[in-house]
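PROTEIN ENTRY
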Amino acid sequence: MLRHVVLFTWTDDSTEEQRAEVATRLRELPGAIAQIRDYRIGADAGINDGNYHFAVVADFDSVDDYLVYRDHPLHQAVIAETIKPIVAGRAAVQYTL
């Protein structure tokens, strides 16, 4: 099993509406991409200064399943249309469980 974790920081001029649209669009992906085994997203709770603003944690049965998700046109559209316009920073890791 493979876990994919992505953390984002948003630009200072991003709006709450734009950030909400990211979450809305990402929540649609598990219903559209069968290779996703588990999918969790969420905004930072705001407890500690300096944290990233948003996280995505996705599990896949295999690297091949992750690659289908990574390259899927719907996933790529979410990135291009909602994430890239407001992202200030990104960190990601994939690891086996």
Summary: Residues 42 and 57 are 9 Å apart (CA to CA). The longest helix spans residues 16-32. The two ends are 5 Å apart (CA to CA). The domain at 2-96 is CATH 3.30.70.100 (Alpha-Beta Plaits).
